[in-house]
Amino acid sequence: MPEPFVVEIWGKPAGVVLKEGNAFRFHAFARPFFELDGHQFNTPGQARLAAAKLQPPGESARAE
Q1: DSSP one-letter code for 53
Q2: What is the per-residue pLDDT across 46-61, written as a single tens digit (0 to 9) for each?
Q3: Which of 6, 24, 31, 58 is deepest in the core (most CB within 10 A)?
Q4: More confident site: 57 or 24
Q5: Which pLDDT score, from 0 to 100, does residue 63 have?
């Protein structure tokens, strides 16, 4: 079984990426990353870039 890839944005956990077939599926841990929950990417790096676009530097995660 492939190892999960933890995605961190600005030092905070955003989610985890799991390999599913030929794709990598993102599973969000917190806001604002729930928007990406369940999306498939070609690489873990693409998932990280998509998550980084949801929280630019200097923006803190909103409390739930």
Answers
A1: H
A2: 999 999 999 877 765 4
A3: 24
A4: 24
A5: 44
Long-range CB pairs of 7-11 (<8 Å, 24+ gap) are 7/44, 7/47, 7/48, 7/51, 9/33, 9/48, 9/51, 9/52, 9/54, 9/55, 10/55, 10/57
Left, alpha or beta for 16 (phi > 0: left; psi -120 to 50: alpha)? beta
Residue 60: phi, psi to the nearest 5?
Answer: -85, 155
Query: For residue 24, what are its two tokens?
Result: 């990598």
The token pair at 29 is: 């841990």
Exposure string for 13-25, b = 16+ CB within 10 A, e = fewer: ebbbbbeeeeebb
Q: DSSP code of 64?
A: -
